[in-house]
Write a structure and sequence with these properties.
Layout (H helix, E strand, L loop, with lengths): L1 E4 L4 H13 L4 E4 L17 E4 L8 H9 L4 E4 L9 H6 L3 E3 L6 H16 L2 H11 L17 E5 L3 H12 L3 E5 L12 E2 L2 H7 L2 E4 L13 H6 L5 E4 L8 H9 L5 E4 L21 H7 L4 E3 L8 H19 L11
Parallel strand pairs: 1-2, 1-3, 3-4, 4-5, 6-7, 6-9, 7-8, 9-10, 10-11, 11-12
The protein binds 2-OXO-4-methylpentanoic acid.
Length: about 325
Amino acid sequence: MKVLLYNMTPEQMFYVKQWREEHPEDDIETTEEILDASTVDEAKDFDCVSLMQVVDIDEEEVYKKLASFGIKQIALRSVGYNIINWDYVHKYDLFVTNTPAYSPRAVAENVLTSAMYLLRNWGQIFYNEQHDLNFVREENLMSDEIYNKTVGIIGLGRIGSAVAEIFSSLGAKVIGNDLIENPANEAFLEYTDFDTVIQNADILTLHTPLDPSIVDMISAKQFKEMKNSAIIINAARGPLINTQDLVEALKEHEIAGAALDVLTEENDFFMKKFNDISELPQTYQELAKMPNVVVTPHSAYYTKTSVKNMIVHSLTDIKRVLNGQKPVYLVEL
Ligand code: COI
């Protein structure tokens, strides 16, 4: 098979080399570029493209050209598939695979890390130490323990379920909402409606795919309904939360903290370096002043297991398709 992997990075390259050694019959080429109208021609003469990008592919020309090159499959090396324009996928008779099982645990463990960081007021502790040389154990730093907390999960696919399992094993009460209820999850959580999750969670964490119908799913109304002591974690997709409303809710003490691994504005600054904070989006500048907020650069997934499996699962599904088999991870929309 002849495959072009876009969005290549050095750490992924390690596993590409491993694949090449184990499958000398395959021609695996790589490029650091994203797939868009200016780079799609590079896919000519390949059987398939594989992508791991957060930038939407909205130009019709991309899909039209892929189809004209005889390519059928767009193989995403990601869980999320919101970068895809589904009208064009259907129009040009293409199909999409993703890698939802690369490591749900990687994201879930990052959610646990974020929750404990916020719960134990580490942001405020570091802020006091670094800005005020204040090492006093002030009363507002007193915390609570996880088994006294209710964790609310919106979206209970592979990642949300892994999050439920971790928190339930620590003794927390876990409640969750999803369109489809999986009986296997009932060992770890209680399913309930969306509003009940919002109103009762001490730790609210989002794990739904991004769909236009749920952009701003968490905005001013939900922040007002949440407990003032609640924290919110987003390791799914930025547009699920209205960032400006989040900034207001934090300023008004409607909620107690936020851990954001994704942001609507992330394409403007994640994976880039800056000289001055004034170059960053205004919303980030506001969030950066808050000790009860932690922003990570879309790194919740970023473990050795995930990076390896992104490559292996993606290339395996390409191979299956080219050998006339069904892909394991077909995205059906
Ligand atoms: C995903 O797999 O959906 C992620 O968010 C990881 C990202 C690097 C594409």
